[in-house]
Amino acid sequence: xxxxTSVSAPMTKDLLMKYTFVALCIxxxxxFISYGFDSIIISAISVLVAVTCDYLxxxxxxxxxxxxxxxxAVFGLIVAMSYSLGLAPAMATEEFxxxxxxxxxxxxxxxxxxxxxxxxxxxxxxxxxxxxxPAAITKLLVLGLLFMPAISxxxxxxxxxSIDLQNRRIEGPFGTYYPxxxxxxxxTLIACYGSPSLDPMDPYTFGTAENPLPDVLYNMIVxxxxxxxxxxxxxxxxxxxxxxxxxxxxxxxxxxTLAYLVTTALFSIGxxxxxxxxxxxxxxxxxxxxxxxxxxxFMATDPATTPLTRLGQIIFGIGxxxxxxxxxxxxxxxxxxxxxxxxxNLTCPLLDRIGVPKPSETKxxxxxxxAKEFETAKVTNCIRCGKCLESCRKNLSPILIKEAVDKGxxxxxxxxxVEYCIACPPNCQLCVDICPTNALxxxxxREITVSPELCIHCKACQNICPRGEIHVTIDRISxxxxxxxxxxxxxxxxxSYQAATKELAAKSMKKLRxxxxxRA
Length: 520
Prior knowledge:
By secondary structure, the chain is mainly α. It folds into three domains: 4-351, no CATH class; 357-421, no CATH class; 425-520, Alpha-Beta Plaits (2-Layer Sandwich), CATH 3.30.70. It has helices at 13-35, 37-61, 69-81, 104-125, 134-146, 157-162, 182-193, 213-222, 234-248, 254-275, 279-288, 290-298, 310-331, 337-345, 348-351, 387-391, 398-406, 410-415, 430-434, 460-464, 485-495, 497-519, and strands at 4-7, 84-85, 170-172, 175-177, 227-228, 374-377, 440-442, 448-450. It has a two-stranded parallel sheet with strand order 1-6. It has a two-stranded antiparallel ribbon with strand order 2-5. A hairpin with a 5-residue loop joins β7 and β8. The longest helix has 25 residues, at 37-61.
């Protein structure tokens, strides 16, 4: 069988971004049912601003910030989908031009897209990895810090006044009641997420004041008229999200989504038993509020800002759910999932160390596809899916090793057993040939082992390696005081860095010349 002409990876960053972009476009189309052209225009503006900033930065930054159009387009859509729209009847006492009806609803997403693309995608990427989700952190900063008048869009007064998840007793003009009782909490959710065209005195379509659950289920699962654009229909998010996971398979970190949803369900049931009220309506609220369900499928699984290992991903999802619940219940921030996401993003460098396989000096048998020969290969950017950790035959952490080497952190690379990974190309044994003490030995599988007893740390192998894969660390050397004049003279000669370098260079060149001549 002849050689194939070219090879490309089954999944690349661009391809993953294309699938995600299509999925988000479907959700944007669904949002038209509730928000009309407002959501479509916001989506178009956000994408256009993000893609434009990406293009301009690629011209300025060159190789340090290459053009990444699909990633920028997905980022713009994430910004739009995580933006809140819809002035609910329950909020009629406040002015919310940012949510609908004013030019601000178009300006703020554009600002978030621009700042996020420039600062938290491109510039953060220069650090070697992204530490926080760009859309989440930018939204918090823009709406919460940079533009204080808009902070009410994060924690509106009507939220904290009408939805008390701690179910504290309220003394009203018509008597005492608990806000989490089925009729009270259910009616509040219908007034918040239901259609503005409903009669405020009788907003029920499928249920009644005594049993509002059917209307709550419809609004929270099928169609909302207030909240995140991307979470307007929870059932649409779930269907599209699962389809994306099935198409991209192992390249989407679905364990985070599953751990988040399961933990949220268990935690909300626990809160129901602690504080009382209707447990089912509380469960539906925490699971299917727009910010929660959309974040679970499309933001919490961001490959660049989430853990690599399977165990790390599960812990990430559990921590994200618990933090979200605590923020919602005790801070009154119903969209607390976005703050919880930023906090959990910052734990990823630690979670990357949890669940890392124990390195093995010998190769482990793994089932893999039959090898093929190719004349050319297409190289693409790493998407941090963590698949390399599962496929490495020596249980190493290739992506963590690469990050350490790229930053010149050889101590970290050594702690990850990078020496197990060195395999030389065919017909290359320059390091073995040039070593003046024969400290390097090449195995039949072209893997290098080093004898610490023989190595004198001369760095000859490091200097001659054509791939730059050898790094020699010189440890501190001490010696007892010597009084002999002869030994002092000898030590002065070899303790001089220049003299030692010259001596070893001459030795290495002689050894290399002898090797070349012997092969001639």
